[in-house]
Design a protein that fits this description.
By secondary structure, the protein is of the alpha+beta class. The chain is built from 13 helices and 16 strands. The strands form 4 sheets. It has a 6-stranded antiparallel beta sheet. A 5-stranded antiparallel beta sheet has the order 13-12-16-15-14. It has a 3-stranded antiparallel beta sheet with strand order 2-3-4, with helices on one face. The longest helix has 47 residues. The two termini are 56 Å apart.
């Protein structure tokens, strides 16, 4: 029995909302559609997301409609969308595109290369103006680490966005959804009639509804960026939100269910494959560090002078991809690259040697990406030493190796 109907039912279903309330669902989807729906409900659990159910053929007062269904709070939610047939590819086209895309996603070794490939594949499937891979950092702010776009648009690759741009409630929703379409950010919001379910007295949970409206904050956000439509997919790693695949388009556009299903599958594959690319990148980095380590040890032993570690290639800088490095040994500093002055190094070493990390017998390493947050004097050297890693070489002589990275300027 129909309990709630969107107020635009007359425009799309040929019956006004008031005429459908309390009626059997066959009034909308016919006896064949109802039988198909009952079959799906008897066979599958449908509470974890919407599935394509069937296509309603065109009628005298409506176009052909794809019907997607899922369950929520003991009820069935049906969504009706114009098929888009003739305006987009058919199911076989999407299948072949996804199959080819999945094959190509096996190749990249680095995470950035992998994300770049993901953006290119999603854009090939959707045809949207801009597709970005957006990675969350430890403090939850985001960075655009890959982008595929039309030539007319300015690049956003490398831009960083505040954590508040994607509030925590939105992040939690993305852990439960594989895709979030918004075909027309400026389109009108359509209410349900009645607003509260008459059986439960509660509002409908629309988490899994593709036709769910967006908050005014989000639509204004898109408008400020010149986007009229958006499509968003999460990139998950170990059950946590690692990043997003964010797509923008300059004009309102339909996202038919075949396209959404293809993008959903790509997001799932990307989440699985990301771990593999990350592991390959880590292994390659580990091999590089081990090779540099062996060369450094051999040079120091052969030349008998720590200058071999600081002023020749490879140096201490190469292992850590740092801008500067300093080694304290034999009561003096040996430096490479951009480092603080010796007086500043002395003060920093005195402070670092008191750190609780160095009381650990298992991993005596101190690391920070914002030195001045913990060491106020660090503000004076942030141009060369905003990021710091320090390792004790000898507890008895309090010898250290310290690597430095400069601050990242923000606008």
């Amino acid at each position: 029995q129909v309990l709630q109907v969107s107020e635009n039912a007359g425009q799309h279903l040929g019956h006004e909302a008031a005429q459908l309330l309390g009626q059997p669902v066959s009034r909308v989807i016919g006896a064949v559609g109802e039988a198909r729906l009952r079959e799906m409900l008897g066979r599958n659990s449908m509470d974890s997301g919407a599935s394509y159910a069937f296509t309603l053929p065109p009628g005298t007062d409506r176009v052909a409609l794809d019907v997607c269904a899922h369950t929520s709070d003991g009820m069935v939610v049906l969504e009706f969308e114009a098929t888009g047939r003739g305006e987009s590819r058919d199911d076989d086209d999407f299948f072949m595109l996804v199959k080819a895309a999945v094959s190509r996603l096996q190749a990249p070794s680095s995470v950035r290369e992998f994300c770049q490939q993901v953006t290119q594949e999603v854009r090939a499937i959707t045809g949207l103006d801009r597709v970005m891979a957006y990675r969350f950092h430890a403090d939850h702010h985001g960075e655009v680490i890959a982008e595929s776009k039309s030539d007319a648009l300015s690049p956003w690759l490398g831009l960083h966005y505040p954590a508040a741009d994607i509030p925590q409630p939105a992040r939690e929703i993305y852990k439960r959804l594989w895709i979030r379409p918004l075909p027309d950010a400026a389109g009108p919001l359509v209410e349900l009639i009645p607003l509260a379910n008459p059986d439960t007295g509660r509002a409908l949970d629309m988490t899994h509804c593709a036709l769910r409206g967006a908050s005014v904050m989000y639509t204004e956000y898109l408008s400020n960026m010149g986007a009229a439509a958006s499509l968003t997919m999460p990139i998950m790693r170990d059950g946590e939100l690692w990043g997003l695949i964010a797509c923008h388009h300059g004009q309102p556009t339909a996202f038919p269910h075949q396209m959404r299903a293809a993008c959903e599958l790509l997001a799932q594959v990307a989440s699985l494959q990301l771990k593999s690319s990350d592991r390959i990148e880590s292994l390659e980095y580990g091999l590089k560090v081990e090779q540099i380590h062996q060369e450094l040890v051999a040079k120091a032993a052969r030349e008998g002078d720590l200058l071999a570690l600081s002023d020749r290639q490879p140096s201490l800088l190469d292992a850590m991809d740092a801008n500067g490095a300093a080694l304290y040994h034999m009561e003096r500093w040996w430096t490479a690259g951009s480092t603080p002055s010796e007086e500043q190094l002395d003060a920093l070493a005195d402070w670092v040697n008191q750190r609780p990390e160095f009381s650990s017998m298992t991993r005596p390493v101190f690391a920070t990406d914002m030195l001045s947050r913990e060491y106020p004097e660090g503000a004076e050297i942030s141009d060369v030493a905003s990021g710091v890693i320090a390792v004790q070489v000898s507890r008895l002589r309090r010898d250290l190796i310290i690597w430095f990275r400069p601050e990242t300027m923000q606008t």
